[in-house]
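Hey team,

Sharing the Anion permease run so nobody has to redo it. Sequence (476 residues) first:
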Amino acid sequence: MKEINLKSLIITVLVGVAIWFIPVPEGVKPNAWHLLAIFVATIVGIISKAASMGTMAIIGITLCAATQVLAPGDPGKSILNALSGFGNSTIWLIGLAFFIARGFIKTGLGTRIAYSFIKIFGKSPLGLAYGLNTADLILAPAIPSNTARAGGVIFPIMKSIAVNMGSIPEKAETHRKIGAFLTLSSYNANMITSVMFLTATASNPMAQKFARDLGVTITWGSWAIAALVPGLVCFILVPLFLYKVFPPELKETKEAPAIAAKQLKEMGPMTVKEWLMVATFIILLVLWIFGNLFAIDATTGALIGLCILLLCGVLTWEDVKSEKGAWDTIVWFSSLVMMGSFLNSLGFIGWFGQLVGGQMTGLSWQLAFPVIILVYSYCHYMFASATAQVAAMYSVFLAVGIAVGVPGTMLAIFLGACASLMGSLTHYGHGPAPIFFGSTYVDLKDWWKQGFFMSVLFLLVWFIVGGMWWKVIGLW
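Structure output:
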């Protein structure tokens, strides 16, 4: 029982039981209320780490089937409904993208891209930051786990460069030389690249699915276009902002390009498999961006990309089977999406949206919009991942916004982005956070302080620059 936290598990059970036996509010179906109890308990278990996400997901699916909340009186249909999440194309898009991302890591293409940008831009701390961040940006559309992108490609290179520049993790007096600056720059850039593409992190397709359930359709292309301008502005501002408020002691890093050049020389020329990976990446982007013209959706495009990699030998079936992160994501993602979808179809989300929306009846949507975004954003202090926040809160906040007249697509994309952008707030706020924080270059006080400043910067850019951009493209 090493992965089970008994204290947290007991609290999780008590929360679920308490909600289950609260009298069902008027206007809510009893099975919808009982499903809410299971859903909330599952989320509490995930947040409190009562067990692994996969374990909590399986428990949630089992309870939905055993209690028949999804099909009262029909055990056969109840189990089919409980397992329905595994038939969701959005979930398989994420799983397939994980498999494709393995190609970047296995072939070394991701590492080569990162070192190439360091070689070009790395003569100063700012250039070094932009080089690492640009590599992250290029990899983002095809690597849906920002934790894998950060931990497997960006962080090892960033730490290696920092150590070579004299920032030694074991020597606190050297941290501000360059290590602390690069840590916060790379981490926050990862939050930005995660919101710029639908396939850049797992919570984005989850938001897309919940938005579709509420009548808001978002495609890969429409998400990318909406996030393009505010995302790029944040991407440009983050290193500059940190350079002013949290500057490195080093002002030149002339050795960095030489280090990168040495690493590239050791890697040798690009291999055939790397070129095949590049070609597949280009095909994927074309299919994801222009798939509607060919009647090919994003999941089908990902299947095509995976087939190409398997047929060309870039990946083997053993690689697919051993990609634990993908299979883990498919399981817990299926559980949360299934419960979230049925909360909506059983009427709970609509009921709650109208209930909360009724409290805002005196507000115009222009006033309600920032209130909804700010409350949703700073609730992220309670969450250790974007997916947990999207699963717990996204549908309700989107329903409230739609009820008071906020343009649906604009709100849906902004809420989806906030779940990742607010990962900047804490050292546990998103999957990559413990990786970067674990370098010890940034202490807890500075992480939270700079994280709050970063959250304000992000929100200002998305409200002001994003708002103007969305007006241009007709989202409001």
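Residues 230 and 466 are 5 Å apart (CA to CA).

Ping me if you want the raw files.
A.
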